[in-house]
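Mods, move this if it's the wrong board.
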Amino acid sequence: MTQLSNIRQLLTDAKLGLLPYLDNRLNEIEQSWTQLENLHLEPYDIELGECNTIAANEPRPLITQSVSLRCFITGSHENKLELLLLASELQNSLDATIFEWSNREWYQFEKPLRRPVTQITGGLDYEVVENPTYSCRLAIYREFDLIYTISF
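Not the wrong board. Structure tokens:
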């Protein structure tokens, strides 16, 4: 196979991929947090979940790929409310970034993305950890579907 798969292009392409776009946005957010003490944005994790292919009267079947994104913030439990507010703001920024990327990608000429992302679901978990420097950890979960044509 000489051509990159559509899912690989959608996620990793240096100019149009979601992950490089997300990396840039998260770096901007982390830079804006430099004045906050004992607060750290950890590397995010991504998982690909359920995958369905539909070929109903389409010249090229469509794939719906579920994508799960997890971001982590560590900080002091003494500032729990502040951490929860920052996590909520980060959650909103992640959603805006995904929607923004999806709409931009969808309008490209030779686009693998067939429909923009229209729904993002997820949540937020708070846990106390043993590490004395950072005494709590927030996990932000975001899930959405990418719909693209199958690669032959």
